[in-house]
Design a protein that fits this description.
192 residues, 6 helices, 2 strands
Length: 192
């Protein structure tokens, strides 16, 4: 992969994660949250493993994880970076809309509000969709099996997390959330 595209993805990750850290300072207090051990093994550990899988190629040498899945051309590299940029924009915009209701882990906030505008009009978890797009763009840029494994790990972690979030939101908002579920998809408009 060309150094320019690799640098673009790394800068994109820094921008997204930097915004996440900066914006986290103003969130509401938690009314209910998942236990720390569950957060660690079900959410943080998978994300760390996925991030390490997207690390430098020499880490993986000639192992199966470092084996080529597809060849990277200038066009596929541009497409991969564009996908990641669009994912970053979606994740950040969705995070902005959540405002003080956002949390990095499964939580119900004090005076929790149900946000249904912007991308939330079509999908219930656009931040996860955005992050999956960034991971997928990064994986396509790498073009190795490890990238595909990283995306699968992140997807499984997010799916588990969104199912727990939705059960809590149903308990909290009741029929209002069920109605919202009936007219939106979890991650991809019109699909699932």
């Amino acid at each position: 992969m060309a150094p320019f595209f690799e640098l673009a993805i790394r800068v994109l990750w820094c921008v997204v994660l930097g915004y996440w850290l900066w914006a986290a300072r103003t969130v509401k207090g938690a009314q209910r949250k998942e236990p720390a051990f569950k957060r660690l093994y079900a959410y943080w550990l998978p994300l760390i493993v996925a991030a390490l899988l997207l690390g430098p190629g020499p880490w993986f040498g000639h192992s199966l994880l470092g084996a080529s899945l597809m060849s990277t051309t200038i066009f596929s590299a541009i497409g991969a970076v564009a996908l990641a940029i669009f994912g970053a924009i979606l994740a950040i915009y969705s995070r902005v809309l959540l405002g003080r209701n956002w949390s990095a882990t499964v939580q119900l906030k004090e005076s929790h509000e149900l946000i249904t505008g912007g991308p939330y009009r079509w999908i219930r978890h656009p931040i996860y969709t955005g992050f999956l797009m960034i991971f997928l763009g990064h994986a396509l840029l790498i073009g190795e099996w490890r990238g595909l494994l990283a995306v699968a790990i992140v997807f499984a972690s997010f799916w588990r997390k969104l199912r727990l979030e939705e059960s809590w939101l149903i308990e909290h908002f009741g029929e209002r959330y069920r109605a919202y579920q009936s007219c939106t998809k979890a991650l991809l408009p019109g699909l699932f």
